[in-house]
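INSTRUCTION: Work out how this chain folds

Fields: amino acid sequence; protein C-alpha cells

Chain under study, with its fold:
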Amino acid sequence: MIKRYLLFCAAVLISHFAMAQKVVEPKRQPDWVKPYQPFRIAGNLYYVGTYDLACYLIVTPAGNILINTGLASSVNDIKKNIKALGFKFEDTKILLTTQAHYDHLGAMAAIKEETGAKFFVDAADAEEVASGGKTDYALGGQYSSFKPVKADKLLKDKDSVVLGGTTLVMLHHPGHTKGSCSYLLNVKDDKKTYKVLIANLPSIVTEQKFKDIRSYPGIAKDYAYTINSLKHQTFDIWVASHASQFKLHEKHKPGDAYNPAAFRDEKGYKEEVKFWENEFKKKLAKE
C-alpha cells in the first residue's frame, strides 16, 4: 500500500514537472520570422534581428553584447547575421533584453547555453525570466511561453553594463512588463561619437483595467513613470525593441550605405512616445 502511494506521488510530481517545463509559444506575427539583412547602425552597434524583432549586437575588443534574441526559432538567423557581419557568434559575452516576453527572449536560453554568455536582466523581470513567462501579468498562464532562463546578474535603474570600453546604462522603464528597460550608450566611428537610446516603448498589452490587475498593483504608476522618463531622454540616434516602432524599413533598405544620421529622427521619437501617452490616458479614462 505504501509502495503504491509513493509511486502515485512520484507520478504526480513527474507530471507536474513536465507541465512546468512545457513551453508553448503564442501565435507569431509573419514579420517576426522574416529574415533581414544585418547592418551597421552606428559605430560598434549593429542590427542582427529579424524583419521586425529587433536584436542588437555591440562589438568590443573584449567580446560582444547581444540585446534581445527574438523567437525560439531565431537562433540560426541571429547566428547567420552575426557571421555575415564578420563577427563570431561564440564571442558573445553578455546577453541583455528590453523585456521579458517570448518575442524578445525566445532564443535566450539556447544562445546562453551555446555561447556561455552571462545573462543580465532588470531585477523586476527576474520572476518572469525564471518562469519562462508563466508569471507575466498579461501573457502568463499554464505553460511557459519561452524556455526559462537563469539570470547571472540582476540590474536596477541606471546600473551600468561594461565590456571592452563600452558602457551601457540601463533605464528601468516598467509597465509593458514589470522590468521592461531601455539602454543608453555612446558609440564611436572614425568621425563622431553618438549617444544612442535603445528604447523600450510603453505599449499596452492588457485589455484588463489596470485596477483589476492584482498581480501588478502598481502598473498605472509604472506606466506614468516610464512615459515621463522617455519624454525627457536626450540622444543623437534612437532605435527600439521592434523595427516597426522606429520605422526601420523607411530609414534603411538592405544594401544601403552606412548612415547613422538616418536614425536621428527626434520628431519620430516624440510622436511615438506621445502616441503611447495618449493610449495610456485613454485607458485610464475608462477605469
